Amino acid sequence: DDKAGASYMMDNDMYEATHPDDISRIANEAFRFATQGGKYEVIYRTQTDNRNSYKIVHAVGEHVYTEDGVRLAYVWYTDEGAYLAEENAHHTSLNSSLRNALHKESIINANHYDFLTGLPSMSYFFELAEEGRKTLLENGGAYAILYMDLCGMKYYNRTHGFAEGDKLLRSFANLLKKYFSNENCSRFGVDHFCVFTSDSGLEATLNKIFREFRDMKGIRTLPVRAGICVSTNDERDISTECDRAKYACDTMRNNYISNYRYFSSAMLAKAEATQYIIDHIDRAIEEKWIQVYYQPIIRAANGKVCDEEALARWIDPTRGMLSPRDFIPVLEESKLIYKLDLYIAEQIIENIREQEEQGLYVTSKSINLSRADFEACDIVEEIRRRVDDAGVSRDKLNIEITESSVAENIDFMKAQIERFQSLGFNVWMDDFGSGYSSLDMLHIISFDLIKFDMHFMREFDNSDKSRVILTKLIKMCIALGIDTVCEGVETKEQSDFLREIGCTKLQGYYFARPMSIAEILSRYKNGSQIGFENPLEKDYYSDIGKINLYDLAVVSNDSKDDLAHYFNTLPMAIIEAGEESFALLRCNNTFRTFMEKMFDCVPTGELVRYDKEGVTFGSAFVSALRECASTGNKAVIDEQTADGSIIHAILKRISVNPVNNEKAIALAILAVIHN
Ligand code: C2E
Ligand code: MG
Ligand code: MG
Hints:
Elements (H helix, E strand, L loop, with lengths): L2 H10 L7 H17 L3 E8 L6 E12 L5 E12 L4 H6 L3 H6 L2 H6 L12 H17 L4 E8 L2 H8 L1 H19 L4 E3 L4 E7 L3 H13 L9 E8 L6 H13 L8 E4 L2 H22 L3 E10 L5 E12 L3 E3 L1 H10 L3 H21 L6 E6 L1 H6 L2 H11 L7 E6 H5 L2 H14 L2 E7 L5 H7 L4 E4 L2 H6 L3 H17 L2 E4 L5 H10 L3 E2 L10 H10 L11 H8 L15 H7 L4 E6 L3 E7 L1 H11 L7 E3 L9 H13 L3 E6 L5 E11 L6 E11 L2
Parallel strand pairs: 7-8, 10-12, 12-13, 13-14, 14-15, 15-16, 16-17
Antiparallel strand pairs: 1-2, 2-3, 4-6, 4-7, 5-6, 9-10, 9-17, 10-11, 18-19, 18-23, 19-20, 21-22, 22-23
Helix pairs in contact: 1-2, 7-8, 8-9, 11-12, 13-15
């Protein structure tokens, strides 16, 4: 719980049998784990039961969250077998002058070797490589630092067990020793290795290593990624060069074949840009280089702005406008994103309060949260506190979480999402359809809204198939009672299609780009702002949006009549009935065809007065509509048309607008009996 308590335990009982050289390392790791989270992993020596030798223990821990969000720690201990003190053997191979150059004390006290692989520790490796490069450079040569990473080690440990995983790491270490010698190699992290070597013949050696590792007998192996940093001078620290090699290595993160890549000047520029972000995030927040832009989200049922998405913009005094693509991934990776996101949350809350004070309609605003926010702090509590302190209603904040950040640790994220929801926040799934686990996730987590990834719109123009998929997915959301947003709507055609298939909200450049507060205000002034929805009407329009007028006929062209036939539904429409007039709000394509065939009329959203002469539907319809609107009772209509056919239809009141008392009524045509 507290540091003193934890170290007391470690000093006094729990680690009583631990090798004295390892205790401080364990205590540090335990403290880090308790205060910062992440994974707990230490390998250490502990006395065997008879107390006359040591065995190796591999401890791995994780935090789990109970349903009500309480954090528990689990630690697994694996006995890795006897520890063989090999240090002396290694020391004999040490260059004797180098050995003398090193502090005697540090040799005795420091942890020089990784006892899993027998390779030098990181700091010792830096010292050795520093000496090594002097010799190489004096002789006019160049040297290289390799940073290597086994692809998929986490998964390997999970499927084959840690004992097998450790065996794999030892085998790889042995291969490195064979080609580069023990003292030129090091293990940096679980499955990360560094090598110092002269640069001649490097590629051939790497290819040999890749091949030998792949073909190793008696063990299943993994592909290897290697980053290479070549240098001809000693201006930089070895550790910086290791970083560069790692950088090159990490650019291949998504490769699952053995491969190598050189660190380049382009990477250097990118690394520099990355470093700039990390170094300046605090200042960027303090000096308001970071601003919140808002992009309106339009409700399909009324064409008004019903929500706004907050998007971060970094307007740098020297580098100009940075897009989220430039800084979000960097901040995520460096675990600093929570600073930005908490700041954005504060800005949103301030904007909401300002709007409230000015008596404007306040739409809900959505904030994007990253996976790392949940690791860095209790983001649920941090946001709740800020919202409550400001006296802002919790339902004014929508939390957007991407599909991929949920997929990584679904149980944990489910618990966090449910905490948000039980506090009264809406949680939206962002970028749905961009990953692989989409449908499964909907089954496990109840989102309030699903936001379809932009790629659906990018493929929209290319294929009928993507329209069918989108239609089906939206239909599924309607059936589950979940709202939907499609992002990246850029054309009228896309917008019409989405309204047709029942997507409830739309977002994209077709309506508006993300805008600064100043721009939003100036649009207000010159009247070019899209109208904001009155929050009191929110439920009314949400009810209208959730009615399924689903009709796939729109996606099938004439040549595929069978499809059209298969998917066709009843003609259905939603009508808004006022005191003196009514209007069509939404309808499906079958309804449109029906109106054209029966009445030779193309339905529009125009207002129609009840007392107007020659209303396309006759008097039975009008009186049933008014009756249904005022009583809320279902009404059945038998309307006779001019040619003597009878139309059977049904009307049902869906919702009442509390602001203007208009009623939304669903109309379905059940049958037409011809004479
Ligand atoms: P996102 O949450 O999916 O946001 C939608 C992105 O699509 C925004 O890009 C928006 O400007 C862009 N967009 C909107 N309509 C259209 C359109 O019609 N066509 C095209 N081509 N693009 C459109 P942006 O602002 O560059 O943000 C990119 C991503 O960065 C966001 O994707 C979000 O994941 C992340 N992000 C942005 N702000 C924040 C933040 O404050 N915190 C966190 N954690 N992530 C953020
Ligand atoms: Mg988003
Ligand atoms: Mg998105």
